[in-house]
Amino acid sequence: MAASIRYKPMMSVIKCLLVLLFIDIYVVEAKPKHVSVHLDAKWNNTPMILEASEFLASEGNDDFWGFVTKVNELNPGLLAEETDEAIYHMVQKFSSRFLSPMMQNFMKMFLSLRAYSPTVQMYQQMAVDIGPPKGCKAFVYIHGEKTCDVNKIEKLVKDVGDREGPPVFKFDHIYPVNKGGNTIVILYGQLGSEEFQTLHNKLVEMSTAGDIVYIYRHFIMNPSTTATRLSGYGVELAIKSTEYKAKDDTKVEGGEANVDEEEDADEDIEGFVFSTLRERHQDLKDDLKKFKTYLMESSTELEAFKVWQLQDLGLQAAQKVVSASPEDSLTVLEEISQNFPSMARSLVKTSVDDKMKKEIEKNQQYFENYHGIGPGESGLYVNGIGLDMDIYDIFTMLDIMKSEAKVMEGLFALGFKGEDLYRLLQIDIDSNKQDFALDIRHSAIQFINDLENDNKYKGWPSSTRDMLRPTYPGMLRHVAKNFFNLIFVVDPLDKNSRELLKMAESFYVHSVPVRIGIVFSVNSDKKVSGLDDPAVALAYAFDYIRQDDGGPKALTFITDVYEVAGQNDITVDMVTNEFKSQYSDEDIDNVFGSNSEYDFVKKSCGDFLSKSGIRDFPQVMLNGKPLDKSFLNEDNFEEGVVTEIMQATPDIQQAIYHDRLHDGHNIMEWLMERDNVLPRLNSRILSGPVKTLDLTENIESGLYEDIRTFETLVTKDMCAVVADGVKYLNKNDDEAIFGVSSWIVGDFNTEEGRTFAYSALKRLKHSNDLRVAFISNSVPTTNADAKVDINKAIYVAAKTLPNNLAKNFITKLVKEDYVQELMSGDKVLKDLEVNGMDMSSFMKSYESQSDDYLNVQSLFTERVLEFSAGQRGVVTNGQVLGPLKDDEEFLLEDFELLETFIKQRGGKKIKSELKAMKYTGQKGSDLLMKVGGLIVSVGTSHSRKKINYGGDRHSVVKIPGNPDSPAFQIEAIVDPASNAAQKLSSILIVLKELYNVDITLFMNCRDKLSEMPLKRYYRYVLNAEPLFKADGSATSGPSAKFTSLPNKSLLTLGMNPPESWVVEAVKAQYDLDNILLEEVKGAVTAQFDLEYLLLEGHCYDANTGQPPRGLQFILGTNTSDVVMDTIVMANLGYFQLKANPGAWTLKLRQGRSSELYDVASHDFTDTPEGNKDVIVTMNNLKSKSIRIKVGKKPGMENEKLLYESKEDEGGLWGTISSSFGGSDKTNEDKDETLNIFSVASGHLYERLLRKLESL
């Protein structure tokens, strides 16, 4: 739009110039004044290529190494000479091979935010901590040895010997082609450099040969001298009340900053767009500048409002937004909200449409009733996922959108659009989830107690109705009924099992209202006796004592042996000696020998474990439902059991209340007759898939037997070829949608493979919702001398025969009786002919079939499924279970459980939606398989909401997205005159620039205001992508700039960063708490630094469950002294540590903390498996929270960490005051250095208050 006047009739340019000349004599020489703020990180600027590689790593290891390979092919010398902009375009080009257009847009924004700069810096810190060899720009680290000489690598690898390898983290970049090497070689270098290229090529060669495990970590020998410029934060200028306030009246000389006139390109000042006027009237540039300054100074000064003028100010702001065109509405919202104090003068003149006002009032009733959002409050939903408006930041929002994008793009690629796409997207795979339980009515379970019959519980109430009695929250009801049966399935020699059995004894001793049962996993071989195997010896002793003295005494004997063993391995002598000490009259051979009569536990347990499908030990079940593995340790077990009992109690209470369960029932029988109880539970199935295949790619058909083309494809395309090429068997030939599609993977020339396939076919005969396909994973030598290739026969049968004939014929092919006759020569393939089959035609196809299909299937299982030749597994709806162990059974009952499990995890819901969309037959079944795998792979288990409202004609802004591509649905309930609108408007503008978004804004204004609703100016610093100068170099980075500010109002500058950032002002020529522009020459500029990222956590004593008040932690590295320290608060055990990007070791502070305590366990840390240290990595700009449990050292149980003070008031405030005031009781406390943050910083105080309020 050319020069325009917003509130007056259009003026011609000539008239404007006449006005200019008229007022020229009144305009004094003055420059527009502004406030500019930027934020830098404390670490050096990191290269864009490295940050881009980390984004690709977040998408997958293959994508990361594919990108590395492309960059490595470039000439390092030429790459070093490229401009920043050229490198940016190169990154976009290379990444397009691995990323969709939508994901490329995400990469643009993450690069603009510098979101992966901390990740690169973390690797840099790890390299510096190791110590790079002198003069090396890149180097390798081989089990403690370092070199940058490529010719020395092979020798160093050979000389590794028994040296321990370095810790490997989950986030490490491990080269994907590794054929079993054990030596870990870490390359530290800068991708794109000549030194990296040389070492990388050598390590790829050695990794491919199977000599090493190759890991790459970033290292920059000569870091940039500039700091990393950050964005994704807010800046406010609050109007300060001068009552009782003192301001700094010192005038600062100089400090002028040039105003970039180009930054006002589209700025409208009192109806004039000065960028347009300057273009058209170059000769009047100086006069236009004076005129602009005059208008700005005359229009920005604030004026007082009468109360009646304020009443409708929120509604008037909403009217402005609603009246704007959809294209301009976000800009109008941003301008009004972020400059509200100055905009208020024009807003009071705006007329409010009565229809809009009534609709807002009506909608507010819906918002209050359905969403708990009152007038003036805000809510934000991305595809129905709610975000906390108080603490959300752009990083959190982008993470959610990135996760959603994968599903949206996948569904769109499968042909779903519009409402159909969003119906599938909103399926929650975890809602209404029913937990499976194992039928525990088996004689192998040795119950220690019986709440219904033991004298120990005679004094307890014994009616089922007593379960309905009220009790305090968290307390268990002591009722003499076996409502809760806690079954321990343990290997008695395993150290984790030892602790669990000790807990079982503790539960019994303390009369916890559970029935305790034990199953021992021991060697069931008849030839193994108690004199040969200590585990069998324990089982024999347990059986003897159980029969003689009862279950409690038998359990006590087991724990007595544990006490004798301590931390040592248990031996047969330990068991027999302890037994002899307690039962001196018994003959050891009679009890423990090969002819012992006390082998019932041993025999029955073997049968139970075989039938139950339980393989992972230890295992604990409550009423047959397995407890989460995280609870199976000394620290968390009690909490886990109580949690499970609390969750199970309401169902039992409802059954009692409705008289479905009463005193006449056998409680165990009632529990085991429920629908979720199965005769067999396969822990492999219940633990979820190992990986999930991406089946959303569309690719040309006919490649299933083209091995030359197939081996050139990427993983995603391989999956598409196999999904298109496999032939399914099913029970019926109708057009139904099959909810479960299973690919049976194995070498069917082996007995194990055939048994596996036969179990699947048996399940197929009884299921109307299952279809099965077979994928051969053959070992080349298994069929060398065989007369019939079963793999080929299955493939040809599925390919050429009708469904029923193929199903019957393949069943014969995998039935062991027929196979043995085929292999012996007693029968030939023709003898297996089924009724209606054209055998001669089949034989021709069989004999002419090439091995290309076999090569395709074998390559698929190797590269995609990552199975070794001959290994078995099943892929169901894209979810991979396997590879199975050589001796692992997968029976008919397992396939039944798998089918039920898949249906429960979204399969049934997806099928219902596809039916509603009129999909049928193979098309519908294929879509169900692909959609199911897609949703499970991303884990879209978010709680979603649809905004309920009364009307959307007059008070709702709708900004539609492009219907031809998947769009994010963003819905916001917002008051334009609120803090939330100031932040949200800028974010939505940037998102709209980059992504396809469908935005709906519901106005939610407060009525009858009595004061100014917004008393601050605000800017949110955010760019859609990196910016570059004309010469191709990167700009200095984003900043917040305030213009058109009042000159006579006192302003206070404040930062609004993500809550985990600790920022401080490091450079400013004026007092930022008291800014008065009329005393400023030119501009106020301020530089802030991100001093630290916050690491927060909670700490508890493992024995008492209470916070160890005053316990001190330190954060450092293996080679450096203390970096930061903190103290544990008395309330909630809360603590904070300040850190920068890197891998840090968390330890107890030397002194009383380390003397009394050891770290017992930790959660949510980054400690590699088997590592004794507690390692925490800070590798992003988001908050990180950990949980630590400590335990007192032996002999220190009665020692106190802190000595009580006479003035100790206890509680939160007592803890804070004692922490800051210090104590004179110990030498450690004599140090005057503060151990935690100052309350003035606000972080500890404010975050702790939020946590208390959330309880």
Structure description:
The protein is an alpha+beta fold. 38% of the residues lie in helices and 16% in strands. The strands form 9 sheets. Strands 1, 7, 30, 32, 33, 36, 38 and 40 form an 8-stranded mixed β-sheet that branches. Strands 20-25-24-22-23-21 form a 6-stranded mixed β-sheet. It has a 5-stranded mixed β-sheet with strand order 3-2-5-6-4. A hairpin with a 2-residue loop joins strand 2 and strand 3. It is globular. The two termini are 54 Å apart. 41% of the residues are buried.
Give me some keywords for this one.
single chain, eight-stranded mixed β-sheet, 38% helix, globular
Share in β-strands: 15-25%
Number of helical segments with 4 or more residues: 41
> What would you report as the Rg, rounded to the nearest angstrom?
36 Å
Alpha-carbon distance between the termini? 54 Å
Largest sheet: 8 strands, mixed
Mean pLDDT across the residues is: 85
* Uncertain ranges: 1-15, 17-30, 243-263, 1204-1242, 1251-1255
Q: What is the percent of helical residues?
A: 25-40%
DSSP strand count: 40
Short description, anyone?
By secondary structure, this protein is an alpha+beta fold. It has 41 helices and 40 strands.
